[in-house]
Each structure stands twice: as structure tokens, then as C-alpha cells.
Amino acid sequence: MTARFLTRISSLALAGTLAACALPGANNSAPPEIRMGRIEQISATQLQDSHQIGVGAIVGGLGGLAVGSLIGNGNGRDVARVVGAIGGAVAGNEVQKRYEQPVAGQQIIVRTGSGVLVSVTQPVAPDLRVGQNVFIEGSGESARVIPR
Length: 148
Description:
Elements: H1 2-20, E1 34-47, H2 55-68, H3 74-98, E2 103-112, E3 117-123, E4 133-137, E5 144-147
Antiparallel strand pairs: 1-2, 1-4, 2-3, 4-5
Helix pairs in contact: 1-2, 2-3
């Protein structure tokens, strides 16, 4: 009974974790918006990581639970599951921390043909410079400045 309950809980937690990792707007089938303009200003900045908080601990805990269920019998197996889940959660959290380092980026101000100023923050693109004619591809957080 306990093993069946833990299996169901683990399955629900894994499904929730995978659903949280889905990209928002990934099913958007509309063509990307492309605008033309000239770079007015480029400022250095840092981009924060886009990983979901706690995903490493959850995945690590589930992995530790799975490994712990392979060890021992009876009460020993239950103890191994708990120790495995805790150890996996700690290890998964530490692995996730390694990937949460800020990334070098740049904030680019582009004046479009209609005179509107558009600000785009993206990873560093060394081939961009002030005064250069560019395309702004996409909109919102997915917008990118690319050379013409």
C-alpha cells in the first residue's frame, strides 16, 4: 500500500515538474514580427537565469527516492527512500545553483523607421554597434536585435 502511494505521489510530482519546464507560448504559430531600425545606444547588463526555482531539488529528490527504493527490505527500504530523497534533493539543488550564474548581456535601444524607440535586452552580440541598421525580430521577451 505504501509503495503504491509513493509511486503515485512521485508520478504526480514528476508530471508537475515537467509541466513547469514547458516554455510559455511555445504553441504560438503566428509568424515572428520583424521591424527595421538603427541602433541608438548599447549598454552592458547582466541577464538572470531562466531556470525554475526548485526544479533541481525536486528532480534530485525523485531520483534519490527511486534509487532508495531499490535498497533493503521492509523498514530498511523506507529509511533508504527517505535518505535517498533528501540526499537527491540536496544534490539536485547544488547542481542547479551551478547553472544560475548571471550571463553577460546588453540592452540595445533601437529607433525604428517610424521614430519609435524600442529597448531589447539580449545576450551579448559582438557584431552590433551604435549607428548600425538592424532588424528587431520578435516581440516581448523573445525579441532579438540582429544585423541587417
